[in-house]
Amino acid sequence: MAERNVDSWLEAAARRLASTTSRRGFLARMGTALFGAASLPLLPVARAGAESPREAGPDESKLQGAAGDPTNCEYWRYCAIDGFLSACCGGTHSSCPPGTEMSRVTWIGTCRHPVDGKDYIISYNDCCGTSFCGRCICNRNEGDRPVYLAGRSNDINWCMGTSTAAYSSTVAIVLGVATES
Amino acid sequence: MRRCLAFLRSVATLALVASCASVPAARAAEPLGQVRTLPAQPGPHWVWVSDILLKRAALIDADGGSFLGMLPGGGSGILAPQRSRDGREFYQAETYYARGTRGERTDIVSITDALTLQPKGEVVIPPKRCEHTSWVAGSALSDDGRFFAVFNMNPATSLSIVDVAERRFVAEIDTPGCSLVYAAGTRRFLSLCANGTALVVTLDERGREASKAHTEIWFDPKADPVTEKAARRGDQWFFVSFEGVVHPVDVSGPALRFAEPWSLLSDADRKESWRVGGMQQLALHAATGRLYALMHQGGVDTHKAPGTKVFVYDVDKRERVERIDLRNPTASFVLERIAMPPGGAIDWLLQRALPNHGVERIAVTQDDAPVLVAATAFPATLAVYDARSGAYLRDVSEVGIATSYVAAP
After folding, report:
1. B235 and B186 in contact (C-beta within 8 Å)?
2. Are A122 and A111 in contact (CB under 8 A)?
3. Which of the two ends of chain B, N or C, has the fewest CB atoms closer than 10 A to its terminal CB?
4. What is the pLDDT of residues B357-407, one digit of tens each?
5. Which residue is catalytic, options A107, A119, A144, A158?
6. Architecture in CATH for domain A45-177
7. Global ipTM
8. What is the pTM of this model?
């Protein structure tokens, strides 16, 4: 359904990443050399950086029950989450706990908002730098893909681009509406 | 009177002899500083069971359930010690931070003596090793045993190649668009690619990149991707897709060959919503060609759901030969906590009354009387089955806190 759109979005995100991170030279060279040649998503990863223009999140005031509870695995944004919920660990569903650092690259999911019925692209950012939180472990796999389709794989420790890769917990940030293209 | 005294003397003598007999013989003092080593010949049913919270891999004898020893893993909780071809050492990729969870990062391939489990050496590799939950195909030893490859992601993908004979890092080989690593020949590895091909990397005598080429497209990554969780029998790799389609890959020749795919599922199975799932969902007994697949009943997106049964296949005939019922891990855990033996009325009740979250990982030993081990992370359990008959044999108690990777070395 939203797959084409997600793929286009991923490609755009990958290109943004390749041209803006500190590994700029290497990634840009590799991307230029190989993106076109092999038609492979070389860096199929998302990025929820501040420089990315983003849409406002949906209204969550009318959500009821578990689908509206960020400390519950059934919270609507968690359809492809794998890890400890930041909201149970001193953070919120969209902010990391104190003492951690939010990952710069992420995996994404496409979750349906139970009230407005729209599909939203969700960025699952890992919170990094401390030990495992150990609370509210959740694993949902809607749209999850194997590790070689990395941008949609929740099995990977996505603490990359952070000062350490020590995993603590995970947030779920709405990036925008997944519209048909 | 004299007779009476003689009797008393005899009784006293007997009592003295009896009391002397009960005095322990002089024994040598117990020596200090003794540390055991493992037997030179590994047991046929030894298995590695790693623990993501304890951050160690435990070597366990599935026969008696005894705990033989362990390998630590630094900051990494999911560990897959790989035995050298001569059986003398284990290799393992590990990540460390100078201050535990912060400070300078160092990634290594550790080399451990297989008898003492003491470190024999280490090779520092680029600090970009990928960590992923299943840990299947995170590293691989070349078929000649010379080179150990570690899969990197930062998020660009590559392989770090270590010469385990010379104990040195040789090369980093980029694998753009492709991930994971599987041994695929003497000095050859394959990775799975996002476009449905495999990337085949061949090393030269020194371990550097000799060639790197994509195969033809052999699976559909969008419609029905193959999982990472493959099983190997000699020159054949068996990859299974989300929908239960087996893709055999032959790595014997100069070019990889792809046999006709076949399905684990009959129409009746599909009607009953059987699917393959779990974090380590395939195991293969090479001598008999028996493929063990962890199965559950579920819909789309349940490709990692734990299993309640193992379906057993003959990979030569491509047909199912058996279904093994797996015990409820939660019930087994509770049974152990309350010190009740399996098989009784309490067991029967718990098996049915407690929620069954299923088994996440399976592995099979490679001897003539193989066992199938079935592991679950929460609660941490390890059940042992006769791999030929499917009969439940035992649970291993106190296997850890959060069982992650299992492997029969």
Report:
1. no
2. yes
3. N
4. 999 999 999 999 999 999 999 889 999 999 999 999 999 999 999 988 999
5. A107
6. Sandwich (2.60)
7. 0.89
8. 0.87
